[in-house]
Amino acid sequence: MFKAQKRFIAGAVCPKCSEMDKLVKYQNEAGRDVRECVACDYRDVMKSEEEMATAAELQTRVTPEGKAVRDEGEQAIKIFDAMPPSGTKH
Ligand SMILES: [Zn+2]
């Protein structure tokens, strides 16, 4: 039977209740690192190193596309700004 071994993270501050030394860290059934606060109901499942690497890789790949989308958005805003105001005054 699975038994989580919870260990306090020294000096860690809970992002939810801001209590210090209330965060425990343990591995759940899936082998994920979980951070949990004993003072409130804060709980955060950490991503595995493999997932982190994949996410970082995806982020790098997505960046040029994301920039292109943002440029489109800026262009759209410019077009919108260039449009004469329809009846409403600024
Ligand atoms: Zn907390």
Task: Describe the protein.
The protein has 90 residues and is an alpha+beta fold. It folds into two domains: 7-45, no CATH class; 47-83. It is built from one helix and four strands, in the order ββββα. A four-stranded antiparallel beta sheet has the order 1-2-3-4, with no helix packed on it. β3 (33-37) and β4 form a beta hairpin. The longest helix is centred in the C-terminal third of the chain and has 34 residues, at 49-82. The model has no long low-confidence stretch (mean pLDDT 78). The structure holds zinc ion. Residues 14, 16-17, 19, 22, 37, 39-40, 42 line the site of zinc ion.
How are the SSEs placed, and which strands pair?
Elements: E1 7-8, E2 23-27, E3 33-37, E4 43-45, H1 49-82
Antiparallel strand pairs: 1-2, 2-3, 3-4
This protein binds zinc ion.
List keywords for this structure.
about 90 residues, alpha+beta, binds zinc ion
**Largest sheet: number of strands, sense, barrel closure:** 4 strands, antiparallel
Mean pLDDT: 78
- H and E string: EEEEH
Strand content: 15-25%
Strand order of the largest sheet: 1-2-3-4
User: Which oligomeric form is depicted?
Assistant: single chain
Shape estimate? elongated
In short:
With 90 residues, this protein is an alpha+beta fold. Helices cover 38% and strands 17% of the residues. The radius of gyration is 23 Å and the shape is elongated.
